[in-house]
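Weekly sync, protein design subgroup
Attendees: M.S., D.O., the rotation student, P.L. (late)

Item 1: inverse folding check
M.S. brought a backbone from last month's batch and wanted to see whether the design step gives back something sensible before we order anything. D.O. pointed out we never logged the input encoding, so this time it goes straight into the notes. Structure tokens as presented (308 positions):
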């Protein structure tokens, strides 16, 4: 086996099952805290941004990058890497934080977020940023690309340590308004794409207001099931529940050749009470003096969890 110090494979090597779960939980929770902290620091550079989404999605991003994704930090184009596709280009701030956590870009580069000549533009673009597989932002296209990619990778058949590359697609609840998402969902089932996992960030919010006022998409779980997917719905801010859902997807759906979707109910601004209750949460303006308060609230919450 060829490994390098920066190659990541899921951290499932602890000696017994209880220790293993505790280790994974701690690794993911700590990464989620750092992702949130990075997002606050990056938001402060511009004084505003999609900070609420980064805080809300941090546990999902941390679970994927710390526990699930196979990648080589020094070789973002490694042929048999798992692919993480960010449909929602505006969530790039959270994704950059995760990519820095993963060692694919330096943490120090995060402070360039949104600046001229930065590799980290406000909306995710694959030609700019290592680890950014697609240019998202035109909502509803991520899953269509993920389906083609999962199909193509399966046709290629290249394996490493006994398995081919997997495709993870991160979507927002707003993307469930798009017909192309459901067309792709049908395609994934038709082609029996067991190597595809979608995660939907159900934060109940869109640019124009609450999701249920823009377009009612519920019952979401039943819809994905009707489209032939192995569907689970979890608290997307509960690391234990996320780990269990990813384990189920790998154990149950993948061997059957069924695509998996993990529907993650999250809270915008999660971990920072000042932002959790803020109106106009889609694009937050945060006053200069509030950034430090946000960091302190985040740290207090994390320490509280760690000592509980
Ligand atoms: C096809 C398309 N239509 C409209 C937009 C404009 N737009 C940008 S973000 C957004 C909100 C979509 O909902 P969601 O991603 O759930 O928003 P959030 O949770 O981040 O508030 C919209 C409509 C877009 N980017 N792409
Ligand atoms: Mg949303």
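Designed sequence read out in the meeting:
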């Amino acid at each position: 086996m060829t490994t390098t110090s920066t190659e990541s494979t899921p951290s499932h090597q602890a000696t017994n099952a209880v220790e293993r779960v505790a280790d994974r939980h701690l690794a993911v929770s700590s990464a989620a805290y750092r992702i949130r902290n990075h997002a606050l620091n990056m938001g402060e550079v511009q004084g505003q941004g999609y900070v609420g989404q980064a805080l809300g999605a941090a546990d999902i991003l941390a679970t994927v990058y710390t526990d699930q994704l196979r990648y080589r930090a020094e070789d973002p184009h490694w042929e048999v890497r798992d692919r993480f596709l960010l449909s929602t280009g505006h969530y790039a701030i959270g994704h950059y934080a995760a990519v820095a956590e993963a060692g694919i870009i330096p943490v120090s580069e995060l402070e360039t977020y949104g600046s001229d000549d930065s590799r980290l533009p406000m909306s995710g673009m694959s030609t700019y940023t290592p680890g950014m597989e697609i240019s998202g932002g035109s909502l509803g296209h991520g899953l269509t690309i993920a389906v083609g990619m999962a199909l193509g990778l399966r046709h290629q058949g290249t394996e490493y340590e006994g398995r081919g590359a997997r495709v993870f697609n991160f979507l927002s609840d707003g993307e469930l308004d798009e017909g192309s998402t459901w067309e792709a969902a049908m395609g994934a089932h038709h082609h029996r794409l067991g190597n595809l996992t979608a995660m939907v960030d159900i934060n109940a919010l869109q640019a124009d207001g609450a999701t249920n006022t823009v377009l009612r998409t519920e019952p979401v779980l039943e819809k994905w099931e009707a489209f032939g997917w192995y569907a689970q719905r979890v608290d997307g801010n509960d690391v234990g529940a996320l780990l269990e859902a990813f384990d189920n997807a790998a154990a149950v759906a993948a061997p059957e050749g069924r695509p998996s979707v993990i529907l993650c109910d999250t809270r915008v601004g999660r971990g920072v009470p000042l932002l959790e209750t803020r109106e106009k949460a889609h694009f937050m303006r945060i006053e200069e003096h509030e950034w430090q308060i946000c960091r302190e609230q985040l740290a207090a919450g994390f320490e509280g969890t760690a000592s509980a």
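Discussion: Residues 14-307 form a domain with the Rossmann fold fold (CATH 3.40.50.970). The chain has one domain: 14-307.
Action: P.L. to compare against the previous round before Friday.
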